[in-house]
Amino acid sequence: MYKKLKLAWPFLLPGLAGLLIFYGIPFVGGIWYSVTEGTLENKFVGLDNYVSVWNNTMFQMGLKNTMELSLICAPLLFLLSFLLAAGLHRIRPAGGFFRSSVLMPYLMPSSAILIIWLLWFDYGGPVNRLLVMLGSTRVNWMLGAELRLPVILLFLWKNLGFCVVIFMSALQSIPESLYEFATLEGASFMKQTFKITLPLAVPSAFLVAILSFVNAFRIFKEVFFIAGAYPDDPEYIYTLQNYMNNMYSRLSYQNVTTAAYIFAVIVFVLFGLLFLSQRSALKRLNGGD
After folding, report:
1. pLDDT tens profile 143-202
2. CA-CA distance, 285 to 243, in Å (whole number)?
3. pTM of the predicted model as reported, rounded to 2 decimal places
4. Is 23 left (phi over 0), alpha (psi -120 to 50) or beta?
5. Which of 89, 154, 168, 183 sits at a 20 to 30 Å CA gap from 60?
6. Which of 82, 44, 115, 100 is nearest to 202 (CA)?
7. Are strands 43-44 and 36-37 parallel, antiparallel or unpaired?
């Protein structure tokens, strides 16, 4: 074992050096930068920057909106990608075209299809026309809380395919004989999904959950493309990334760094809870061992 590890070090060192130089050192250096002020003297100010940023109303608004959008988008992305992957997995081999197609939105730039979404949710667009046909009234989707719907749908459309591919790889590793036996016993599709597929796909499900939250936390492009750097109704759509970008454009680098570390702590806590949930789920599936 020790001999194999010794032989592996020369191959690992270049990658580890890159991680240390481009991620480790900047991360530690950023912590020091967040407890200083100014750009020349870098006077140590303790936690003053953290207190100042935490009490900033725009930071609080951005953090609140980011968390709300994440708690809406991530579970939806997880559930839809699992159900879509389970459905595509059961229509083999005719589903090959559809399995390849779901990845296309992930490869397309969001800006390229933005005009389509703006046309769909325009005041005179197809969505409002459908609402009128159904007896409802037109909605201005580009203002107020309603703006969240196009942003959420654009996020789901963009990220759904990648999560489906991960779930698909997990589903293909499940023995087909389990489904055949369940079918002979009269189990429905939904029962097979939640009794066979989901328990055996827990490790991949955890990965998809992590990626869903990571992508949801980074929900900014969708907001920026539709509402710009300063949305007209910031209380509904102004995200933490808006705050960071705007602080960066004002050369408030300490505020950007401090906000990033506050958010990182929150993300680490959430991911820790997800990790504990995964361990608890695996323990239950293994009979409490």
Report:
1. 778 888 888 888 888 888 888 888 888 888 888 788 888 888 888 877 777 777 777 777
2. 43
3. 0.75
4. alpha
5. 154
6. 82
7. antiparallel
